[in-house]
Amino acid sequence: MPEAPEVEALTLFLRERLTGQAVRAVEVVEFRAVKSRPRSLDELVGRTVTEVVRYGKHIDIDLEGTHLGIGFGRAGWATWTDDAMASDSSPDGAAVIARVRFDGGVLGITDAGDWLSVQLHVIDDPREVPSVAKLGPDAADPGFSRDDLARALGMRRKQLKSLLQEQESLAGIGNAYSDEILYVARLSPVAHAAALTDGEITRLHEALRAVLDEAVASRRGVPIADQKAAKVAAMRVHGRTGEPCPDGDGVVEDIPGTKGGGQYCPACQPPHA
To answer: Closest by alpha carbon to 198, among 155, 137, 165?
Structure first.
């Protein structure tokens, strides 16, 4: 799943290439992805891109007041080809959901999942997309403060890993970066937010800032097609079940209850007292 650092890199990439570009044609391959019916992507033809903005893990492309909202879901991503007449096949074998042709190239929207997770909306305001309207503060924003995190945590008896991925509380973090943040903070993923001390909240905020700031900086400028590999290579514990802990003597294990979907180091992240 692309998370805020990768989507931010994609936003910057598209902003640089698309601003001032007009849509020449659209092709929807998988019509189930269009969630704004009866409005269709055909409305975009002839309009010029004025801005590209990230909202959490979503992208909004403003075309003279008509917006294309893209939600990547679990397995969505994008391709770009500079040849405006290219077929734009997906290099990783993902299914192409839609293509938007501009003067200077083709934007492809893809989905590599077993079920369709990409969502496309044609709207007049980005917050007409329900999942965007519900977003909490952006965790990848450098201004996301300790107080913002404390408000998101509240006094809730909810496990930290689940809460960090709750987009209504703080936007932009998904499965992988929640593992990485909790590892750097040396906090158990199954600890409840309500059990954290003030010092642990501070430590969690420092880890969140360190992990996301580093990821945003390192993904910037990485080609779209290489973003997933760059993310995987940077992971300390996520996806590394059975490997030695990078900072200690423990071994990375699956988080209980995640069915292999999340990882941690039990030696470095013991159960909360």
So the answer is: 155
CA dist., res. 85 & res. 106, Å (int):
8
| Mean per-residue pLDDT, 174-183 | 98
What confidence category does residue 253 fall into, taking pLDDT thresholds of 50, 70 and 90?
A: very high
Give the single-character DSSP code of 265: -
Q: How far is CA 247 from each of CA 134, 138, 243, 251, rounded to the nearest angstrom?
A: 37, 29, 12, 10
Buried b (16+ CB within 10 A) or exposed e, 150-188: bebbeeeeebbbbbbbebebbbbbbbbbbbbbbbbbbbb
Supply the pTM of this predicted model.
Answer: 0.94
Instruction: Give dist(CA 173, CA 268) in Å, integer.
Output: 22
Q: Is 4 exposed, middle or buried (0-12, 13-18, 19+ CB in 10 A)?
A: buried
- For 27, 111, 112, 155, the CA distances from 86, given in Å and listed in that order, are 13, 19, 21, 53
Is 183 strand, coil or helix?
helix
The Cβ of residue 71 has, within 10 Å, a number of other Cβ atoms equal to 21
pLDDT surpassing 70 at residue 225: yes
Query: Which one, of 33, 122, 112, lies nearest residue 74 by Cα?
Result: 112
Cβ atoms of 256 and 266 within 8 Å: the answer is no
- Return the amino acid letter for 128: E
Ordered by where they begin, the domains of the chain are 4-133 (3.20.190.10), 146-264 (1.10.8.50)
6: its two tokens: 């990768």
What does the alpha-carbon distance between residue 208 and residue 213 come to, in Å, rounded to a whole number?
Answer: 8
Q: 18 in helix, strand or coil?
A: helix
